[in-house]
Amino acid sequence: MSRRAPDDPADRFAAEALPHLDGLHRVAWRLTRHQEEAADLVQETLLRAFRTFAGFRPGTDCRAWLFTILYSIFANRYRQRQRRPPEVSLQALEQKFERELAAAEWEDPMVRLAAGRYGAGEAVDAALDALPAEYRGAIVLVDLEELTYEEAAAAMACPVGTVRSRLARGRRLLAALLRESALEPRLAEGDVPR
Amino acid sequence: MTTPELDQHPDERLQELLDGRLGADDRAVVEAHLAACARCRRLRESLLADRELFRREEVPALDAARRAAILAALPAGVRGTGERTAAAGEGVAPQWRRRLVLLATAAAVVAAIGLSLWLGLRPGDPVAQLVRLHQVAEPAVVTSDPSELDEYFSARLPFDPRVLDLAMMEVHLRGGGVAPVAGAPAAWMAYDGPAGRLLCVMYPGRLEALPDTLDVRQRHPFVFRVYQRDGTTVVAWQEGELVCVLVGRGDPEAVVALAMAKAMLPASPPAT
């Protein structure tokens, strides 16, 4: 028994694209970290996908095609809205992290993770919020959604080499941001500043 | 890979090592650098811990009200069928399961080909492939008899996988099949146990080709690599020319303990 593709475009769209609704929401939430924005992003993605569905080739990867649309909308919105940290600040953060990597004292991050000292909720939110959109996108698509570099490159409309370099720098920046936030709770609790 | 590249720190190559993208030669070069460079080892630890932290994060589900609002914004023709489809809730996974059910009602050969093609459409990280195999695979051979599964594999594979007997652990064989994993045909066996489905997979390859992980256990003479993905535990070890893997849900330590109990060196050829 085989499934005959429906002829009506609306039926085809419902059959091919709508089953990815929850997957799209998961990516949208990871990119925006906000329920309303994520839902809005998914809605805009599906509307745009429906308008351009004639350009989707049946039998190809619908999920990847939808991710491309979603990321394009996210990147455009985010570029307009984000107060991007100055490059100098990002470089300073990376340099600080490099000094920590080279320091004699180094606590195994997996030990910290197991002990719940590595960061949670707000720390993760803050770290991702501070990350420029292109790095956040690469990390969400590759690390969390497990796309290949090639699939992520298609979704982000950039070469594979760009995905590679965004991952390299994005992951380093994220590591630096999470280590920063792991130190801050002491200050929030009223401890004497270092 | 050239030597001057490694005079600095090969951060981009380290990313590719973590993502399982390097060939054997390049992998050996990067691992040699890691052995000599504390800075890169620490970076690797940090990156793996960060990835673990994000993968453990619970993503809030799309609530009913927002789902309804999204569907209501679509043209009415889509909405009518969409509400039935999208309300299934899990999105991608049920779609795969529906397709596999349709394939499985056809001839067993067609079902095996359909499964191979489906898994082949998702190249990349072998650990992700193994987790998906655990989620979606329907046995091509439904049997509780290991010898029947042995016969099935002998007819189809150029290597000799070992069908594990787990009955003493109250884990019972249900069947198995063949599927591509890490670019190679793999034998897989499905079991039912106290924590639900358990999969054992064997394929020709090298443990070192799997993505990096900080969770590495040793029980001489074996090294076990342990991965956690979406509540599923994947434990891999090397037996001769084969990579052997157990994939299961529930208590991760139970899956690890089972792997350690069942790992076995290939029998040596008799002395002449």
Offer a few descriptive terms.
heterodimer, A: 194 residues, mainly alpha, 11 helices, elongated, disordered N terminus, disordered C terminus, B: 272 residues, alpha+beta, eight-stranded antiparallel beta sheet, 10 helices, 8 strands, 44% helix, globular
Summarize the structure.
The complex is a heterodimer of chains A (194) and B (272). Chain A has helices spanning 9-16, 21-32, 35-51, 62-81, 87-102, 109-114, 121-130, 133-144, 149-156, 160-183, 185-188.
What does this structure look like?
The complex is a heterodimer of chains A (194) and B (272). Chain A is built from 11 helices and no strands. Chain A is mostly helical. Residues 1-5 and 184-194 of chain A have low confidence and may be disordered. By secondary structure, chain B is of the alpha+beta class. Chain B is 44% helix and 21% strand. An 8-stranded antiparallel sheet of chain B has the order 1-2-3-4-8-7-6-5, sandwiched between helices. Chain B is globular. The termini of chain B are far apart. In chain B, 35% of the residues are buried. The interface between A and B is large, with 62 and 60 residues.
SSE blueprint and pairings:
The complex is a heterodimer of chains A (194) and B (272).
Chain A lengths: L8 H8 L4 H12 L2 H17 L10 H20 L5 H16 L6 H6 L6 H10 L2 H12 L4 H8 L3 H24 L1 H4 L6
Helix pairs in contact in A: 2-3, 2-4, 3-4, 4-9, 5-10, 7-10, 8-10, 9-10
Chain B lengths: L10 H8 L5 H13 L1 H19 L7 H9 L3 H11 L5 H13 L3 H13 L5 H11 L4 E2 L3 H11 L15 E10 L2 E10 L2 E9 L11 E4 L2 E8 L2 E8 L2 E7 L3 H11 L10
Antiparallel strand pairs in B: 1-2, 2-3, 3-4, 4-8, 5-6, 6-7, 7-8
